[in-house]
Amino acid sequence: MTQLEHWIGGGAVAASNGAYFDDLNPVDDSVYSRVPAGTADDVNRAVETAYQAYLKHRDLPAAVREGWIAKAAEIMERDTAKFADVLVDEIGSPIAKAGFETRFAVSFLRAAIGVPRRIRGETIPSDTLGRFSMSLRQPVGVVAGITPFNVPLIKGIKQSAMALATGNAFVLLPSESAPMIADLLAKLWKEAGVPDGLFNVVYGNGAEIGDVLTGHPKVASITFTGSSRVGKHIAEIAARNLKKYTLELGGKSPLVICADADLDKAVNAALFSIFMYQGQVCMGASRIYVERSIFDKFAEAFAAATSRAKSGELREPTTMLGPIISERQRDRVRRHIDDARAKGAEVLAGGEWDGNCCSATVLRGVTSEMTVFEEETFGPVTSLYPFDSLEEALELANNTEYGLSASIFTRDLDKALAFAQRAEAGMVHINAPTLHDEPHVPFGGTKASGFGREGTEADLEIMTEWKWVTMQSATAGAGGH
User: Fold this and answer.
1) Domain extents for the chain?
2) Which of 280, 73, 222, 57 is nearest to 157 (CA)?
3) How many CB atoms lie within 10 A of CB 252?
4) Which residues pair with 384 in a beta bridge?
5) Which residues form the catalytic set?
6) Superfamily of domain 2-249+449-468
7) What pLDDT, in 10s, does the model give residues 146-180?
8) Nearest Cα to 275, choosing from 250, 315, 305, 295?
C-alpha cells in the first residue's frame, strides 16, 4: 500500500490537517493507497504556489515548453506499463481499456508538442492613419483541472499538457477514486523538466474543497470532467467570478441502426459503445434505436454477443467487463436494473452480479416511467427501442437532456448526413461506435453534456486570452476616430 502526499511546488507536501482517506481497489474493496484529505489551506497553498510560478516562468520561449511536452511523451511511452498497472489496480480497468488510455496519452502529448508554436495572433487593419494594430494570445495564469475516475490518465494528460504548453500553471484535483495517476503525472512532469510550481496536485473530497479551488480568485480558468449536476454548479461559480471554463459532463448517447446497416458491424460497435470499461464511459450508447424491420434480428444477435462479453481477470486481454468503481455506483446500477424489471422491462441478457461486477445487460420494453429511460446509469446497461423512420429516430435520439455523442449505422449517405446535421450532440459518428476521441478534435457535448470543447486546438479558447495592441510613432499626431 502506498501513501500519497499533495504535490505542491515540485515536491510532496503532507496534508495540513494530518487526515487521510482510503483509496480502494474496486475488485475487492481492499485498500490500494492512503490519500491526504485536502483542506482549503492545502488548496490555497497550491494555487498561490502555482500563481507565483506562473509569474516567474510565463515568458519562457515556446521552444522550452515544446521541450517539456516532447520529453513527457518519451517518458509516457517508456512508462506505459506502470501507468497501465495503476489503471488496472486502482480503477478496475481491463487491460485493453488501460492500453487504450496509455496509447491516447502518448498520442495527445505528441500532438501537443506543436501547441507552443501555434499560439499566434494577427495583424489587423487600423482605422487610424499610421497606426499598427495587432492581436496577441497570452496565457490566462492558473488553470484548475478536475478529473474523473473513469479516464484519469486521458483527462489528466489533456488538461495539464495544454495548460503547460500555453504558458500557464496548473492545479489538479483528481477524483478521490483515482488519485494515484495524478501522482505519476506529477513525477512525469518533474522528470520532463517542468519548473517547480507549474504543476501541482491537491487530493481530497471534491464536495468539500472543489469550490475552494474553482472559486479561488487566482484561478483564471477551469476544466472539469464529471457529472452534469456538479458541472452546472461549477458553471455558476465560474459565471459569478467571470472565469473561463470547459465542462465535459454526462451522456445518454443514442446509437441508431437502420435496416440497411451492416448488422455484424453494428452489433460489434454497440458492444464496444456501451460495455467498454463496464459502461463507465460518458459516451456509452445506453440507448440503441433499431429500425423495426430488423429489430428482432438485431436484438437476438446483440443479446447473444452480449452474453459472450467476458468478465474476470483484468489483465487477460479478452476481458471486457471489470468491477463497478464503488458501492454507491453499484447501488445505482442495481437500482436502474431492478426498477426496469419491476415495471415490466424484459432482460434480454445480463442483469446479474458476480461480486462487484455486473454482467453486460440489455433491456427491452423500457418505458418513460422507468428510471433507466432518462437517467445515465454509468454502468454496463443499455436499452433497445424500435423505430419506423429516420424522422422518428431523430426525435427519439434528441429526446434527452444530454447531447454528448451519437452514432448511426446506414449505407444511405443522405440518411447519414441528415442524422449528422440534426442530431443534438456535440459529436456524431457514422458507421462507427459512439465512443471515440482523438487529440486534435473539438471534443465535447451540448445541452447537459457540457460546455465548450477540449483538444489541442479548442483548448486555446480557455487556456489563453486575446490582447489587442496598437503602435504609433511617437512623433506622429495622436490620431483618433
Assistant:
1) 2-249+449-468, 254-430
2) 73
3) 25
4) 288, 364
5) 248
6) Aldehyde Dehydrogenase; Chain A, domain 1 (3.40.605.10)
7) 999 999 999 999 999 999 999 999 999 999 999 99
8) 305
